[in-house]
Amino acid sequence: MTTHSIIDSGDSRSFPSSHPLLDNSVEDGAVAIHIGARPNFRPDPSKLAILIELGTECLGVHTGESRGKEGSNVLGFARFRLGDGEPSDLIELVRQPDTDDAAIEAARAVLEAAGLTVTVCRDFAGRILDRLIRPYYNQALAQLDQGLATADDMDLTLKLGLGYPEGPIELLERTGLEHHHDVSKALFEVYGDHHYAPARRAVVAKMRQMRREQ
Amino acid sequence: MTEIKTVGVCGSGTMGAGIAIVAARAGYRTVVFDENADALTRAEAQTESFLAKSVERGKMAEAEKSDVLARFERSTDISAMASADVVIEAVVEDLAVKRALFARLNEVCPEHALFASNTSTLSITEIAGGCGREDRVAGMHFCLPAQLMKLVEMSPGLNTSPESFTRAWAFCEALGQRPVQTKDSPGFVLNYFLVPFNNDVIRMVEAGVAEPGGIDQAIKTGLGYKMGPCELLDLVGLDTQILLCDAFYGVTHDPRAAAPPLLKRMVAAGRLGRKSGRGFFDYGRDAMFGG
Questions:
Q1: CB B151 within 8 A of CB B124
Q2: Which residue segments constitute the domains of chain A, with CATH numbers given?
Q3: Least packed by Cβ within 10 Å: which of A22, A141, B68, B77?
């Protein structure tokens, strides 16, 4: 079984509380996992893999990029979590073009052994889920303003019609509109696509949060 | 207010056949019209098979199945709609075809009859325009498969009278369905969100961000969806997604609604999804979902 070490810089969004991945950490494990908001890693070819927890930024921010040939034993990851909601069991594992396959497999083995589900993706802002769902949430908020349907009917339609466990409006209210604002704005800055521009209701929520914190 | 006893269903494709089952199962005499006799025959066989499965699974008694089947009439002649109190059209998603159909129905059907369109993307106001009874037309978009899904998106057109919409709503509830009201807006709620979302997924595959299986896994694990978008696209049919894109983009001009190049290439290559045995995933056989 591949061993791993946790290096915690504090305020991890992926692992805010106890988890088997944290509990099974050892000194100087074969895989190094940097969690927290301020990762400070050094390249170490002796490790099977080095994982860095990502926020909205790309892995390349930490490793550097060169001519589309970047890649080593360093991977990015994030445990998918919407705002203030509980983290899911999904790990989006971020690779670069020339990332070692052995590093990916070692990382996958450690994460899956801790009960997590791993999906590998390339190094794009928003990875898979945020990139797909933020335009959908912005659309839902915009259409609420434009009267396409009431919030209850919109949520119910998407739950009954598509089998979603939760409608977009209730989900955003539960997990925090201001958090959606922050992620969506970060993606808008990277992609310049107006579908990522935070919807009016998200902007309002963000401004109210800022006023509260003044 | 005239009591609804007879429901007319125009079109006996997948949606029309499903809607007809819903109507007959709810106790209405159900008249199905389709100019294509083969389509009527096929729908009849599918209906019998579906109801037999319902009996097999204990959801319906044998006697009830016979009663439901006895409520059906089928015809290739539109004059069969003359006795309908409500007509639901589920013909091809083409504005000109639907408008022409409603104009013909207006000449055949009694004055009190309500017309409903099962369109998923077109404007109810435009479909009703010029048919001669714009005040008695409403949108009733059933979800696929109609015979199993409870949700119906209901939309009044600009000229739909409040009384007609109230009647249509009550009829929908009497069918045992769950109506939700949406504006007469392209795609209503479901397709407004689903068509561009699925296109974003296809573009993500094309850009090499992740494999189809990885995207589906992320969606199901991260968001708790029952089905991943690539699985869903394969089930609906990639050729159908192109039709939805064309209809939706034609109205909205939203670039997210335009059919992605990869989608077009896959359809050109015969990778239509489950129906052709291969789409984003390989099914290894040419069978319908559940077949």
A1: no
A2: 4-122 (3.30.750), 129-209 (1.10.1040.10)
A3: B77
